[in-house]
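Example (one chain per record):
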Amino acid sequence: MCGAAAATDATRCEHCGARLATVACPSCFGMMFVGQQFCPHCGAKADRKEATDPAQPEPCPRCRANMEAVLIGGSQVRECPQCEGIWTDMETLRQICADQEKQAAVLGLPTQLPGNDGVEIEKQIRYLPCPVCSDMMNRINFANFSGVIVDVCRLHGTWFDRDELRRIVEFIRAGGLDKAREREIQNLEEDRRLAALGHPLTKDDAPPLFEQDSRHSAVSAVARLVFDLLR
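Predicted structure:
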């Protein structure tokens, strides 16, 4: 656009603001530079289209810019053109999780869970409003140990900051949901053991599938989603 130099990991020109990279990989939802044919993260062919969305514009929970409807592979999501976050409804997220587990089983993808090295941790916690109902969303550690903190409205969907959806996909492909199933089984067995000993069980005896902040006591929609997947 302007001919200025840009850093190799920049997604936007710091001089003129032109977008240099977008989420375009239908397999891992990784960001790809405009014009790239194949994903640098997983090698899948780019597949991104602007979607026709008759619904009312929805503001980004993070920066309040109007989000754009895009079709990435077979998943229709909303993307913020400013902060590059992604909003998905619950059914879309359910399908993404199920598809990734199927791919991992068929392709025999690596089973080493990805680490969090180099991931920027949010130092000042900020609760974000749902773009649909404007209620403050829950902050959830996906599957309790993925290290990816997502923002969830239990009625309308899930917000992923830049690159978080790709990290969730990597977690699922590496067997993260299988690990969560194992933990859930261990928790159930411990509950049965305590019940057999006459130990009075309370809500705090077994750790939840998701860490949920104390400001919200309702079980989140994402917790239900992953609980269904674990079944």
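Caption: The first helix runs from residue 90 to 107.
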